[in-house]
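Input record (one chain):
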Amino acid sequence: MNADNSHVDGAQGSKSAQFAARRHFLRTASLSAAALVTGGLTSPARLIAADPSEVTIKLGDDTADFLAGKDLVGRYQFGKTWSKPFLFPLNAPGNVAITRAWPIDKGVDGESADHPHQKSAWFTHGDVIPEGLDLKDKIKGVKGVDFWSEAPGHGKIVCTEVGKPKADKNHAALATKNEWRTADGVKIMDEDRTVQLYDLGDARLFVFDIDLHASAMPITFGDTKEGSFGVRVKDVIREDKVGKGKLETSEGKVGEKNLWGSQAGWCDYSGPIGDKVVGVAVFDDPTNSAKACWHSRGYGLMAANPFGRGGSGFPAMKGKTDLVKLAKGDHLKLRYGILLHSGDAKEGKVAEHYEKFAKLGK
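The corresponding structure, as predicted from the sequence alone:
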């Protein structure tokens, strides 16, 4: 399967058209802020105007801070000491930290200490098979290289280049290059990744443009549930008995039992943190050639997985065996979003923001 046919090729029109689309998106975005207090929790049921802030990127040696005005929305961590790049901290409107701090920050009392590879917000996959390469390190149950877990023998996504930040009013972007390497350092794939932030006034939107390039050898993405574009929320808004959160999709499915392994344009996790109700949604771009199933759990994980098939156990993929494959030299372009909002999915206008995200840059 040659998967180089996604939306990114459609973004090769004139720069002026892209800027016009972006201005239209930002101009028509809902501009609101929380205004109603009920039972001690702030809810955006009554909306007041809130202008988008200027977005900037402050680049460090191993990090990039994405700022909306003076607010830190997210810190992109790309240092080589980590197994993969990720966003932490990640803050909802009102400077509310919405993702689990552990294991990056181990000083938060009462946080769960499971799944150390689930670091706030990230992109990777649990079984990337480099065709023709004799692997020295193998993890049980994985045919290729495991980039999802951090068990002995796992692969690493290493950031090798960071571009100059670009900012334009309430939007900023950072282009990076990554190498996907085996446990013993052999490069099997290249990746161009651009991370963008939009301040929408009532919400903040990260956009990840991902270009996977089978530059070194043919690549097969293995059939596993362990992937791929993921977020791990704070324990207080988990859906299970530990938290008071709600997990739902664009298809109206609520709760892990109903939505796990299904397909939908977006999935949202929301709940009360302190005196505010906030949420985070992951967007699967409608033109992604590899459509995602939701590997989302009541314990706090929410992940869009475009590679799992029948072996993953996803109900939407029952009986499917058509693995995503790249011939040497091929590209796979994917696009995802992370929306940080107030309230639950309805109050945070997640569906409306998704529609605008889908048109952004087209």
